[in-house]
Amino acid sequence: xxxxxxxxxxxxxxxxxGVLDLAFGGLHEPPDARALWRDLTECERSxxxxxxxxxxxxxxxxxxxxxxxxxALVPAAGVxxxxxxxxxxxxxxxxxxxRRQLDxxxxxxEPLAVLTASEPVIxxxxxxxAATWTxxxxxxxxxxxxxxxxxTDGVGLRQADLVESAAVCEEVYARLVPLRPxxxxxxxxxxxxxxxxxxxxxGGSSPRLCVLAERGGEVVGxxxxxxxxxxxxxxADGAVVVQQVLALDPVAEAALWRFxxxxxxxxxxxxxxxxxDGAWRHLVSDARRCEATSREGLFLRIVEVGAxxxxxxxxxxxxxxxxxxxxxxxxxxxxxxxTGDGKGAVCVRTSDPAELALSVRELGAAYLGGTSLVxxxxxxxxxxxxxxxxxxxxxxxxxxxxxxxPHGF
Length: 409
Prior knowledge:
This protein is α+β, with helices and mostly antiparallel strands. The protein has helices spanning 13-23, 31-40, 93-107, 166-176, 250-260, 280-283, 305-311, 360-366, 373-378, 389-397, and strands at 4-7, 47-51, 54-67, 73-84, 112-115, 129-130, 133-140, 156-160, 209-215, 218-228, 231-232, 235-236, 238-247, 266-275, 293-296, 299-302, 318-325, 334-340, 345-349, 356-359, 382-384. The relative contact order is 0.15.
């Protein structure tokens, strides 16, 4: 390989981002989106692969804090903007960027790295496991009815300007972050992310709209959505395209779903992203007519096994020795004893006999409680070496709330 890895010089950002843009189809981000990503790019955490004066590879990271089971916000590198020019594939450029990046993440003291994958098959070999799942659904509102809890009529709904309401919506989001594993605390600038609404990505829908849920003068929830009109010979047959529904309590959330399912001139509600334990499933009269499908959301890589497993709590007492395989980050390989409960945990090196054997990829998949160790063992990806250890650890690693990332990065 003749390419050289260099930390991104801010003056080279346009050329660097151009490589990324071309790798994702050359669609060219709209000016407001391009400006946002430029402002959010942490150049000191971004790498470019250069072949002479030609940029041929990109990789960046955002400095996130990720909610883990127990509610702690743990430093995590949000891996982003990864690409290799088509002219320079199969030269080891991606592997070299992943190698350098994980070394840098470790040096920064971040025990976790996370990403959303355009091609999930790529990142397993670097130790990333699917740690959250997101659900998509289409509710047939001609046939499906909602049963909402008492008190819903006491929630006021108000159409609001998307930009003017951004601050109060961000406050709602921030209050929810510690309550669900997989959510990230958004720093300055990230409040602009929900406002991105390029016409090229609307698919015939209206500009993005916002409705606020209020009680006692306080905003207790919101939804971002759009209307996709459609007319047939029989009349109106439009769709409500839901980007996000976030609320501080079940009653406010139910009020928002009732609104979305009753928009005039529509017969469908299309949910772009919901946690797999989303409340809407238990509000609808017929879940079969909601065409729910799921896919991976956040991929997680444990960078430091001891620090990562100590950063979260466990929903049942656990005392287990893991044999961890990690060829890409060999400092993680070996035996680790995890002792923990709902108050905290200790995870240290040990020479005691291993009780469960797995790779760091499976440990990352199970880390937020969204994928069970029992399920992974059923696929042959976790081996039980002491009878009873698998169930003990799987129960402890679980989360009462399904982990979910509401947006990409």
